[in-house]
């Protein structure tokens, strides 16, 4: 099993609320505060390029419109993914996963890549993201690969079995142990309101690491860390800083 040496605080979507989500500028904003671990959402363009975007569609977080996975990278790379957030970020592009890997290598950062497939392309996205992650992060801390999609996670396991995987739960489900075993996951990523002390104890007893998302209240983050949660994924990267765990 891969050794676990991830930082305790993960900057959600790169820069939390401080920068346009899932951009290099977001990662830079988090890194400027000293953050070492970043969560991002990855999907495929129509011609098989892997880039960062949360939604299936472009409208909410860019100047583009429509289903992103229906467009070629040549079309997607012209989209402004920063202006919707603030004029300061106008012209910020959608990043390729390869550019994210370069940033991680240059700044010595760790990453949790959430596979966020366009509906209908779960298996292909899971496979392609895992293969690219394995290739691009050679010599670095391996990316922690997660997904809400069981199909995507299974495809990632088959394509790159040695990459660490986290089972991302949208809602709590009682068959988590069987699912985690089947998908050979080292971690479970749970909505923090679903995490009780009893559930944390049960997850730890099975040897699973726990990532809690998305925790924006420092008191709640402190409670979860004291109860045994391994990673706090947060939008409030300013209030829940990289040294948060050491200060409690
Ligand atoms: O990976 C944790 C979290 O990012 C999952 O939810 O919707 O923000 O991708 P979402
Ligand atoms: Mg995510």
Automatic annotation (TrEMBL):
GO terms for biological process: lipid metabolic process. It comes from the Bacteria. GO terms for molecular function: glycerophosphodiester phosphodiesterase activity. Keywords: Hydrolase. Its EC number is 3.1.4.46. It is an enzyme of class 3 (hydrolase). Gene3D superfamilies: Phosphatidylinositol (PI) phosphodiesterase (3.20.20.190). Residues 7-244 form the GP-PDE domain. NCBIfam families: PRK09454.1 (NF006989). This is Glycerophosphodiester phosphodiesterase. It comes from Jejubacter calystegiae.
């Amino acid at each position: 099993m891969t050794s676990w040496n991830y930082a305790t605080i993960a900057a959600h979507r790169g820069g939390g609320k401080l920068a346009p989500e899932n951009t290099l500028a977001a990662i830079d904003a988090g890194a400027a505060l000293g953050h070492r671990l970043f969560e991002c959402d990855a999907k495929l363009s129509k011609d098989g390029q892997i880039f960062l975007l949360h939604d299936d569609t472009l409208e909410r977080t860019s100047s583009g419109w429509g289903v992103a996975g229906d467009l070629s990278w040549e079309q997607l790379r012209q989209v402004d993914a920063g202006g919707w957030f603030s004029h300061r970020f106008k012209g910020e592009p959608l990043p390729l996963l390869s550019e994210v890997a370069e940033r991680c290598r240059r700044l010595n950062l760790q990453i949790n890549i959430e596979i966020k497939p366009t509906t209908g392309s779960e298996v292909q996205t899971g496979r392609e993201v895992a293969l690219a992650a394995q290739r691009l992060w050679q010599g670095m801390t391996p990316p922690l690969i997660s997904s809400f999609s069981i199909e995507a996670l299974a495809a990632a396991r088959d394509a790159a079995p040695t990459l660490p995987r986290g089972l991302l739960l949208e809602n709590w489900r009682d068959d988590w142990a069987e699912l985690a075993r089947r998908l050979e996951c080292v971690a479970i990523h749970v909505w923090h309101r679903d995490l009780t002390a009893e559930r944390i104890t049960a997850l730890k007893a099975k040897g699973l690491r726990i990532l809690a998302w998305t925790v924006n209240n420092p008191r709640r983050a402190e409670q979860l860390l004291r109860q045994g949660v391994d990673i706090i994924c947060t939008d409030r990267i300013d209030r829940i800083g990289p040294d948060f765990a050491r200060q409690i």
